[in-house]
Amino acid sequence: MEDAGPDGSMAAEAPRHFAPWPPGVEPAVPIAGYGNTFTHTPSQPPIRRPPTRTEVTGPLELWRKLPCGDDNLAVLAPGRMAQGQLIHIGGRVLDEDGRPVPGAVVELWQANAAGRYFHPNDQRDAPLDPDFIGNGRIRTDAAGRYGFHTIRPGAYPVPAPGAWWRPPHVHFSVLGPATLSRLVTQMYFPGDPLNPLDRIFMSVPDAAARERLVARPIPPEEVGLGWLGYRHDIVLRGRAATPVQP
Length: 246
Fold this sequence. Notes:
Protein name: Protocatechuate 3,4-dioxygenase subunit beta
Structural class: mainly beta
Distance between the termini: 29 Å
CATH architecture: Sandwich
GO molecular function, one term: ferric iron binding
Strand content: 15-25%
InterPro entries: Intradiol_dOase_C (IPR000627), Intradiol_dOase_core (IPR015889), Intradiol_RC_Dioxygenase (IPR050770)
Number of strands: 13
Oligomer: single chain
Order of helices and strands: HHEEEEEEEEEEHEEE
Radius of gyration: 18 Å
Domain Intradiol ring-cleavage dioxygenases: 89-117
Family: Belongs to the intradiol ring-cleavage dioxygenase family.
């Protein structure tokens, strides 16, 4: 794969191969007690067909079609600050060989500090924050870097049989240089006691792969006054890939 052009876009040359995931990286689905994984998990194996150049290389320059630049979820407008612990999440998007992926579209969405999403499907009896929408979209720079200012999301109970809670987490969708490099996943916070009790987090069998879902804290002096920092690199495909999360 060639380097990015002067505008940060990817060259059209297709990678020669994509290394497969080793056993234990893909989540074991469907997940007991989480209904969406039953309705969204195929009951039959997929029909395999060889990818063509269209699937491998397209869509090119997707960032031109999807407006980017919403990197501050914590400040809706001047003087309108979201409630909760202010944090910064940043890192790099990398390919399977550890090379940066410039021009990737990175989307983030999350619950507010009370653990409620700004979405009509979330009708839980928890407060909504009028100054927090909870989603943003940016484009990685020439070195594959991304970053969001936001707030630490709250935990919330799962509306399903059995008493279990989702730990604080954020959702990511990453669209890299090709259709095959799209990744939908989640990021968790280090040391949270709900992590090992979360059925979605624990659906990834391999412990080392689960650790790739957990962000790393950054010393406060590297982030700036008022913000706690976390680093979270995202790897598209390959043996060191960031695991998929529903």
